[in-house]
Amino acid sequence: MRAAVVSAPGVVAVEDVPDPSPADDEAVIAVSLCGICGTDLHVLDGDYPAVSYPVIPGHEFSGTVVGIGSNVTHLRPGAQVAVDPMIFCGSCVQCRRGATNLCLRGGGLGTTADGALAELVVVKAAQCEVVPPDVPDGWAPMIEPLSCVVHAMDRIGPVLGERTLVIGSGAAGLLMVGTLALAGARVAVLERNPERRALAPAFGAVATAGDLDELDDGSGGWDLVVDASGSAGAIALGLANLRRGARLCIFGVASPQARVEISPFDVFSRELTIIGTTSVRNSFRRAADLMALGELPLDLLVGDPLPLERTADAMERTRRSQGIKTRIALGATEGALGSRVA
Ligand SMILES: [Zn+2]
Ligand SMILES: [Zn+2]
């Protein structure tokens, strides 16, 4: 099969690689669409922990089941699925307490195992979610980033009526804005890029600005700040503008080297809460159902997909924040690939 392979940090090329075959509890998916996100850039740049090269990136995808292992009974070839890309052991102390995204031996498709920028990808069958019929064509790869938002909402807790600031309105930020608004928050958006900022009202933002001062209504700070930019400067700004008793959620992926200065006295005396949230935990099914409600205008996030051969290009577009969510079309169909998988 054809696949985009990162052979070493900084080097990505489309190559012929062997077709994968499923173990007893696995399924092989013929990928139809795969979104590119910041994590794929970290894998390309060599600054994502625990990646061993060569690796095929890509973890936001949908496709058709074309092969199943001998123990798989709940999936049939031909099913249209999106896949929770987390890898977890099920037996470590974190998995046993239900925190599979914090697995001590965990990883993910597209980072520690081959991902979906390929014609075929092998996955745990139990982590395939049949795409609800109400989800329009082309939206299913965004179930994965939306499931990260749903998990973040689990971490944040109730937001009804809260004055909320989201920093950064790229794809993940806009999904966060839309979900917070559906959950009853009063959401303002800080985003420097005017094109991205302009999309936020369609997701329910009540105010947008490129400069925080423009959002100051004299009410004394925010009940909740969600950073979706991954920028240390933005996180420091959010922290400095919290109300007493407020929460800061770190949702964007910062560089592992980034540092933010925190005053323990400030956190103590103002009773601030700093919330980390990572990946997906029991949130994939709910994200699929949330998407099927049709309340999030996801067509605004995507343009025409690019072919696999233009993966390097797609990564650079993502790096330059060109467009919102860049996707690769693998163009696979069951008919074209079904015979290739045992
Ligand atoms: Zn992602
Ligand atoms: Zn584990």
Question: Can you put this structure into words, describing what you see?
Answer:
The structure is a single chain. By secondary structure, the protein is of the alpha/beta class. The protein folds into 2 domains: 2-138 and 302-340, Quinone Oxidoreductase, Chain A, domain 1; 149-276, NAD(P)-binding Rossmann-like Domain (Rossmann fold, 3-Layer(aba) Sandwich), CATH 3.40.50. The chain has 10 helices and 17 strands. It has helices spanning 38-45, 93-96, 143-156, 171-182, 194-197, 232-240, 264-269, 284-292, 311-319, 334-337, and strands at 2-8, 11-16, 26-35, 60-68, 80-83, 86-87, 107-108, 120-124, 128-130, 163-167, 186-190, 207-209, 222-227, 242-250, 273-276, 306-307, 327-329. The strands form 4 sheets. Strands 3, 4, 5, 8, 9, 16 and 17 form a 7-stranded mixed beta sheet that branches. Mean pLDDT is 94; it is low at 333-342. The structure holds zinc ion (2 copies).
Remind me, CATH topology of the largest domain? Quinone Oxidoreductase, Chain A, domain 1
The helix count comes to 10
Report the portion of residues in β strands. Answer: 15-25%
Mean pLDDT, to the nearest integer, reads 94
* Domain module tally: 2
Tell me the major beta sheet. Answer: 7 strands, mixed
Q: What sequence of helices (H) and strands (E) makes up the elements?
A: EEEHEEEHEEEHEHEHEEHEHEHEHEH
Q: What is the CATH top level name of the largest domain?
A: Alpha Beta
Going by CATH, the homologous superfamily of the largest domain would be Medium-chain alcohol dehydrogenases, catalytic domain
The 3D shape can be described as globular
Give the end-to-end Cα distance, rounded to a whole number of Å: 14 Å
Question: What's the architecture of the largest domain in CATH terms?
Answer: Alpha-Beta Complex
Query: Which ranges are low-confidence, i.e. pLDDT below 50, for 5 or more consecutive residues?
Result: 333-342
Bound molecules: zinc ion
Q: Give the number of DSSP strands.
A: 17
Structural class per helix/strand content? alpha/beta
Helix content bin: 10-25%
Provide the gyration radius in Å: 20 Å
